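It is worth pausing here to work through a concrete case rather than discussing structure prediction in the abstract. The textbook approach is simple: state the sequence, then state the predicted structure, then interpret. We follow exactly that order.
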Amino acid sequence: IGSTNTSTINIGVSGDTVNIPSGVTIANAGTATGFGSNTPAFFVQRSANQSIATSTLTQIQFDSETLDTDSAFNVGSHRFTPQVSGYYLIGMNVRLTSDQDFDQNYIQINKNSSIVFQSYWENKFYNGHFGQTVIQLNGSTDYVTFYIHQNRGGNTDINANGTETFAFGHRILGA
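Step two, the predicted structure:
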């Protein structure tokens, strides 16, 4: 230890617990491995405006990926299905092309077919909305989908601008 020798130094064996006392600083000047990761992770948008019927809950068809570390977002089904269990930070932002003052809208995030997040807004000052939540996913069959409901009295579009309409997620903690 402390020499310029490039051998591997093992501390303990599989199954051992290595205690590092309080106050000890671990400095890393190389590559850290085995400490966990915030993947799978994704960031998706719409490639074109999507028409949303009035008074109808509609799945947002995110079909363009900027980031998908583990190929866990399916642009065909518009759902995120991570194959790693854990707690995930999942969020979305939606901007409508309509700016009607009387609109009553909501965005919704589902785990499988159950609502895990829902947030309402009116278009008095801004015709878009952001929301996020933490969801526990089992890593095999759980999936996440994104929805919008607008009630302006006629159809309106979701703006496809990637800085205004998007969804994202990443693992924040193992299960």
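Step three, interpretation. Residues 106 and 120 are 4 Å apart (CA to CA). The mean pLDDT is 87.
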